[in-house]
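[scheduler] slot 2 assigned
[scheduler] job type: sequence-to-structure, two independent chains
[scheduler] chain ordering preserved from manifest
[runner] begin chain α
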Amino acid sequence: MATLMEDEVFKAFSTYAAIVILKMLLMAPMTAYYRMTRGAFSNEEDVALKPAEERKKLLRTHPDVERVRRCHQNDLESVVPFVMVGLLYALTGPELSTALLHFRVFAGSRIFHTISYVGALPQPSRALSWTAGMLVTFSMAYRVLSTVLLL
């Protein structure tokens, strides 16, 4: 384990995995912030202390809240596979420069994806950032499979 923690590729992976995981984790408080500031809640218990007439007004959807919530869902669908595949990729011994390119493009694509999603930037900004992240994950998966494939 000590040798692994000294490996430059593994350190780089750990750094970028932590960045995208933290970004993903910050989406939940961001969703809560948007819910509170937009007065749009999805559950009865969230508005239980409000008067009955106010509860009806607060139990609603809001486009800003939905955009942040969907962005968080998309993070779960992209960041989790990146972390799993990226760990296996780091263990295949890739060149540091190639690994850094993969990790940086993925982290950048997820950060830009969030900016374009929450900021409601016009397409294809969100689609291109999502595609870049997925291509990185597929590229790493290809490296893993081509390195260790045993059928």
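[runner] end chain α
[runner] begin chain β
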Amino acid sequence: MVSPMITEKVISNAPYAASAVTVIAGFTVKDWGVIIGVVLTFITVIVNWVYKHRQDQRESALFNQKINHHQKHKNN
């Protein structure tokens, strides 16, 4: 048997779900195109930032290795 507490939560949240479905159903193909474009642009920015950050870390590590190698040979 379903507890009364769960039933109350479902009933109290039903208008919000219905409103969300109504809004989503009202989107045109043009609206969906804009939404998808914005989301994909945001994802692209994040992915590019992550890869650039990793590239910067690799280049910094290589630079530090070269500096350390140069300093060791300079001291000898």
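[runner] end chain β
[qc] chain β: Helices lie at 4-25, 29-75.
[scheduler] slot 2 released
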